[in-house]
């Protein structure tokens, strides 16, 4: 039997580079880090070829697309063909996110890495069930431990979160409405100034601390109202990972 030899010659032709990356993404199915794609074509670093390939899939009619997930890339079926796929493939179990779970996910997405205690301070209630459900759905994971008494777990979002909500990087998450932030800040500053003038210097420090805590509470309430709106409006379903062993 002839022994298979591995050719480690760097791939220099642009079309060949795209073909190799396409083969890797199809075969792996899961997300592949950029440095691994570079290794596949014998390069030290790689960005141009995968970007060309992504652009090619974005133009014309294709049943698949390449998603960027931070520093990784994954080939998936386009979500608009979901209804066609489930005619012959098993439909994935729909993970319905309740308002409570969605709210918890929103807080983790914007404040990550974050502890359960921090989540509960914003929500005002215990969040064990919601966090556990998100871990079960592979939307968040334990990212480490806080260097504090008891070493509480820190939670962050996963690649599945980005894939499901249609974002390439966490920087794609929208900021709170700047006008809303300005309104909160202005209102608190005016209230703080008025109270300090009213009190003089007697209890100024204690009163200022109370007002600053009130400012934090107002900011948390603004997040409470803002975050689930984005998450609920942007949830994407129907992305099937593609690999050589899937039908």
How does this model look, in words?
The protein is mainly α and about 250 residues long. Helices cover about 50% and strands about 10% of the residues. It contains 10 helices and 5 strands; from the N terminus they run αβααββααααββααα. It has helices at about 15-30, 35-40, 50-60, 80-85, 100-110, 115-125, 130-135, 160-165, 180-200, 205-235, and strands at about 30-35, 65-70, 70-75, 140-145, 155. The protein has a 3-stranded antiparallel sheet. Strand 4 (about 140-145) and strand 5 (about 155) form a beta hairpin. The longest helix is centred in the last third of the chain and has 31 residues, at about 205-235. The protein is elongated, with a radius of gyration of 24 Å. The model has no long low-confidence stretch (mean pLDDT about 75).
């Amino acid at each position: 039997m002839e022994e298979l030899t591995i050719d480690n010659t760097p791939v220099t032709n642009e079309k060949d580079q795209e073909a190799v990356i396409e083969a890797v993404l199809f075969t792996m199915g899961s997300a592949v880090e950029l440095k691994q794609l570079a290794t596949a074509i014998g390069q030290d670093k790689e960005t141009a070829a995968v970007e060309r390939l992504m652009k090619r899939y974005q133009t014309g009619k294709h049943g698949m697309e390449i998603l960027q997930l931070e520093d990784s890339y994954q080939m998936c079926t386009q979500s608009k063909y979901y209804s066609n796929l489930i005619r012959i493939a098993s439909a994935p179990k729909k993970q319905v996110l309740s308002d409570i779970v969605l709210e918890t996910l929103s807080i983790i997405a914007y404040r990550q890495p974050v502890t359960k205690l921090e989540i509960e301070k914003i929500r005002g209630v215990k969040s064990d069930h919601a966090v556990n459900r998100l871990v079960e759905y592979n939307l968040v994971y334990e990212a480490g431990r806080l260097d504090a008494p008891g070493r509480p777990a820190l939670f962050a979002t996963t690649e599945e979160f980005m894939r499901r909500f249609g974002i390439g990087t966490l920087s794609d998450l929208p900021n709170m409405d700047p006008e809303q932030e300005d309104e909160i800040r202005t209102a608190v500053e005016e209230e703080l100034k008025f109270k300090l003038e009213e009190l003089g210097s007697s209890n100024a420090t204690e009163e200022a601390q109370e007002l600053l805590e009130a400012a934090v509470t107002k900011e948390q309430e603004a997040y409470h109202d803002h975050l689930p709106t984005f998450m609920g409006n942007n949830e994407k379903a129907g992305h099937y990972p593609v690999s050589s062993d899937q039908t």
